[in-house]
Amino acid sequence: MQIIEFTLQVLLGLTSLLLTLLILLHKGRGGGLSDMFGGGMSQAMGSSGLAERNLNVLTVILALVWFFAVVGLGLVTKFQVL
């Protein structure tokens, strides 16, 4: 049980840091840090570029992993038998 809890804690820490970084990379109203990596070069007609779409998908997947790590850690903590 302790190995699962430790693994979930490490996963939660890593995904929290990566989520913060990915959210900061998104293009906001005025550009954002994603401009440095090609996210600012969007296509015409207001659609987002390939880098921004990939960043969106990566952020959603990482947010889901983060969510399940939080839920899993909560369940392990609640039902832990000492």
TrEMBL record:
GO biological process assignments: protein secretion
Topology class, membrane: Multi-pass membrane protein
Top-level taxon: Bacteria
Sorted UniProt keywords: Cell membrane, Membrane, Protein transport, Translocation, Transmembrane, Transmembrane helix, Transport
GO cellular component: plasma membrane
Main location: membrane
Keyword Cell membrane: yes
GO molecular function: protein-transporting ATPase activity
Compartments reported by the entry: Cell membrane; Membrane
Matches recorded under Pfam families: SecG
TM region(s), chain numbering: 54-76
Function: Involved in protein export. Participates in an early event of protein translocation.
Assigned protein family: Belongs to the SecG family.
Name by which UniProt lists this protein: Protein-export membrane protein SecG
Gene: secG
